[in-house]
Amino acid sequence: MASKTITIEQTGSPIRRDKVQRATLVGLGLNKLHRRRTLEDSSSVRGMIRKVAHLVRVVDEA
């Protein structure tokens, strides 16, 4: 059985943001606007998305 995935897209710039928020974006595999990443849907990934919810959007949950 394949694990669930979640696709996120960066919509906001990390300029003038905390280092923690920038590091969270890098941890999610994002660093430029409109980049998309498909990640495993886990509680740690959900927590990271919640920390930078104003900079990313969830495109697809499969």
What does this molecule look like?
The chain is an alpha+beta fold and 62 residues long. It is 29% helix and 27% strand. It has helices at residues 19-27, 43-51, and strands at residues 5-10, 36-40, 56-61. It is globular. The mean pLDDT is 94.
Question: What's the structural blueprint in terms of helices and strands?
Answer:
Blueprint: E1 5-10, H1 19-27, E2 36-40, H2 43-51, E3 56-61
Antiparallel strand pairs: 1-2, 1-3
Low-confidence stretches: none
Proportion of residues in β-strands: 25-35%
Structural class comes to: alpha+beta
What is the number of domains? 1
Strand order of the largest sheet: 2-1-3
Helix content: 25-40%
From the 3D structure, determine the CATH topology.
Answer: Ribosomal Protein L30, Chain: A
CATH class: Alpha Beta
**Can you say what the CATH homologous superfamily is?**
Ribosomal protein L30/L7
**Discrete helix count:** 2
Under the CATH scheme, the architecture is 2-Layer Sandwich
Measured on Cα atoms, how large is the radius of gyration? 11 Å
- Shape category: globular
The biggest beta sheet is recorded as: 3 strands, antiparallel
Mean pLDDT: 94
Q: Please report the distance between the alpha carbons of the first and last residues.
A: 13 Å
Q: How many distinct beta strands? A: 3
Q: What letter string, H or E per element, gives the SSE order?
A: EHEHE
Short description:
This protein has 62 residues and is an alpha+beta fold. The protein has 2 helices and 3 strands, in the order E-H-E-H-E.
